[in-house]
């Protein structure tokens, strides 16, 4: 159920019956020479929509721009400073609590958002406002991801290429997929990204000249469909698990006395 | 040109040639018993898209959630606290400056965002980052709006009903349009919204029991189309006017010496 | 009753009996070549004093410096950044709640303060601290203003000239009144302040070379007196209306259930 | 020269010639049973006015409300939270730098403002904006204060009583002066304000039941006049000393190399 | 070289010759029933000291309290809110830049600090202040850690037990080591910490009743010594690598043009 | 009892029985040519340790870096901006309240921290979190300090030299003690630090070329021992006095009604 498509009287009954809401979040940032800047927010929105449809749980509009300063050198990348991003998400989540929601899943498709969603989630959890968890699609199906692709770069690699080939194939520049591999970084371990245990880079461009990681030539729309369905299934299970919990199980443990 | 649909190499040439960008902003808030919560951000996005297509000027993703605490009593309304909204918009606008853009039009369809966009725009103007102006569609065509409708409420009235009937007719609950009029506030002057010169209300519900203002029974998709085309034309003219200005004309005047 | 002129034991009884307080706010900013920088805060203080005397309601000291960055190019203009202004006013208003006041009228004479006072008032209203409304003198008597003057500029025009001629005639530079008209902007509609619906200026100097708007040659002390008395009467009525309200009528409406 | 009483063209020449400005600051807080809440800001304004008149140096409006939470238990006391106060003062001081002023004297009459003015002054000094110093009248004439009064309480005692008897005698409640002494704390050393080296109190009421300190029965308008003249003389000397300094002498020392 | 043990003239020559500094950071938080709260900051300080001694690079005092709200339920745990932690570390790092240092290693022994140190490091890197990298000892020697212990909990497990047995054996409660294993969580995969890809916990107590993770009965002081020496060696190499870099290699890449 | 040296089960009983905690705070800043940068935090930690041992009251780790921008010109000085320092200390103090502590003594050895600790203490006192008082060792034994030394500079003078000679004699550069006197400022009254009542300096270097104040040649380890023991005794008395107070005596007084 997509909250923004309805009138408030239509939402009233839905929200009265609901305890959970879905908030999709992505980014608008370079994804190599072959994928659109929208990649992450398209994935988040598509998964959130599928799970909302299947479960009837309300979902909010997607936060399209996330914490992406590490991709800024590539033309068109947009980003929000971490404090602004955290406050924006916190504000929206508090709204849901006002409307009676007491649990939220952040359906996230951008690694750069993770620690910030955890920080916001903790704040809201500790002050008793709401219980929100961050969920990232590829972390819910690690075996399948490994099975399908040989070189899984963390960004603009085969798993994202497959997903967009499935969700929005018209936005993939097929002519640039080999170039993505050849001009990017196929294998993270070949880079000097970590020196004696320290991550010495701050930006994607430090490791990949064209912003792509992994080998996306491996990706197909069919693989994308398998990923999409498997991840949606995990998300639906997570939502069901969350809805089944007792409210008191969502609150912080008391101090050990 | 919608920035997020393209790869970064495709954007590179576009942005090198561009001096202006369009940032659409709306809200996700109650719009009476007959219009969807998405009303404002749908309008902003549709106008921004039309103008971006016509001019080739890049537009960013839409900021879907705005400053709407005054509608919160109606189920489903989402809002962002003013400081968070201002920081979020400021952050995104600074990105555009990093990419070489020096002028921005905030295509806005929500009255509650106006003063905040002006505050952000001023800050960016004063520190020399970028020149951003706020544009609200109905303020660009006041005569046409007055000509088409008898009772123009500021919110969820005939002008927004006509626009959504044109842009996304499937989201209008036609069965509730009369109810919107009968249970809302048709004429602002009949309310006690202003007492001896002071606005004594803070929330929409203080003046309208169902959140609607004006008489939307007057609205049709055809009128919506006229509004849409007239406003798009104004927006295109504004963009052309802006692009034609010299960079130094965009900077603050110096102190009078 | 001016709070600062009394000892605390004298105030104790007054405050115990009071539910309402008056907070005057203005600016210290250029008002054309003929009016003093103090114009706005003099007007706010004079009106607040008159209404406090007539009603016995306590008034606080005047906030003399407001949100005036848009006048900064003219020598001597002082201003406070919006976040600082909001916090300052919020702080002072919370004090009044501590002393048992549950309603406040911001007697404001500077347009640049309005949206900020509304933002502070909303915050205090929503968290249940106090009910504060913003009141601007000329908005309480629009018919009289229109009746008295032909070209009512929004700033440093005939209405403010008349008011200062009544309140503090020694501060009006009579020799510069024609110059105010001739070197300023008599009719806003002649300016290009609004382009295709967008306000394209940020500073007063963008529209008026000497900072004046309207035609102040029309102003007299007698007209000032009429304005002053009419506005005071409106303010007194507002205060009486406010005092007569039940405390529960001052609180936000609950969510629609 | 009082900046707010003039038009901007009149100020232009004044400010072009000026390097220094005076900013008076006080408080609106209880001053025992016999003195008005305005005490501190009246004193600051009177001294600033006298020195501005004598030297021709521009002075700004007075900041009437300061950092006074420690007096809040007494009816009518107003206060500003420290961060808001610091930002407000910083904002106003930056204005003066915009207008070409490079040195400021904060003419302060409230002890609770001191550390905050120093913090703001340091920030502005370190970033090269302006050189601002805090000056408190009684610290400029310690010998005279000691000579005139036997029990000099730090607040609402004889020195402030004398000053207000001189500046605004109609605001002193003469009938309550003995009561101020008898119900207050005459001698700080008799209190348990400091325990084994720690200040264990946070509020004035912890040490004085009526908010007065010292023995104000000792005060007369004549003594007030002597204090006023002596302090004004010191302030004038300070301003002259400041104006005589080379701009580079106002900047922070470089790091020791 | 420990900066705080020296006089400023002694430091002058050292700092003039230095480009790099070491800032140790840890936490003060529960470490199961057998390890002291100081565990993390003791480890960070010991490693920093060893590397500073070996290389002559200056190190600052240790930040003893970190971002540990997730351990708060256990008595004595101290923590700093993320924004305060980030500002504190940023402030200290800026000092080092003032003294001519242009590269910093955060020698960190607490996982909860990582994302915050990265956020601060990025901010300082982007504004050109300094190049700071976060280094966590166990991530520099993953093979050795795996070789030495069977059940490596992330917190209060064998690796930390071994380290403290080497660094400060008197602070290990040997009688509680088996209890740490038996009442804690030996194997993270046995927990329900991750549900369908989402981390559903916020606090250590959600997964471990006594705060310990892994099997610390495996730990010895000898193993601790091996860890300590191996990690110190990595840290020294990192410092040498960092010192050898050209200053321009430390700056952010420019935008792709 | 040093909190960080214990396991959480060991702390549980201690904290259950405790109402008071000790938080030591100092600085890392130049202390003339003869004393280490650690001077203030070493003194605070030593006194806190002695008092914690004698009373059994828990003490936290020491805050080693304080508010010292006024010493920054001397190589190696570290400092934290005032807002960051206040937030850091507030965060740590709130932790103690979570663990059941309702009173705190800030054992402080750096004058630059005082006003900030008072500001934090007030905030926590007013919102009912905890009652925290600031204690500075030399202010608890003013007579003894005066008796032992002729020229007591406020910083890096004989009292601190004596204390470090007692606590950490190996860190005193005996060869530089005369130089400290000769190249520093022996007598504050000889400086032009205060001009007509205004402190016109912001930095230590404005008054002392080598950062030392007073005559440290007068100091001996024996005098240091006397100071240390006398101050410890005062601190123990303060802690006992604090522990003996009723909880309600720690709360703010209500408003005078």
UniProtKB/TrEMBL annotation, chains A, B, C, D, E, F:
Under the heading Pfam families, the entry gives:
Creatininase (PF02633)
Instruction: Identify the keywords attached in UniProt to this record, alphabetized.
Output: Hydrolase, Metal-binding, Zinc
Task: Tell me the InterPro entries matching this sequence.
Answer: Creatininase-like_sf, Creatininase/forma_Hydrolase
Lineage: superkingdom = Archaea
List the GO molecular function terms.
hydrolase activity; metal ion binding
- Cofactor(s) needed by this chain: Zn(2+)
Q: What name has this protein been given in UniProt?
A: Creatininase family protein
**Can you name the source organism?**
Halorubrum tibetense
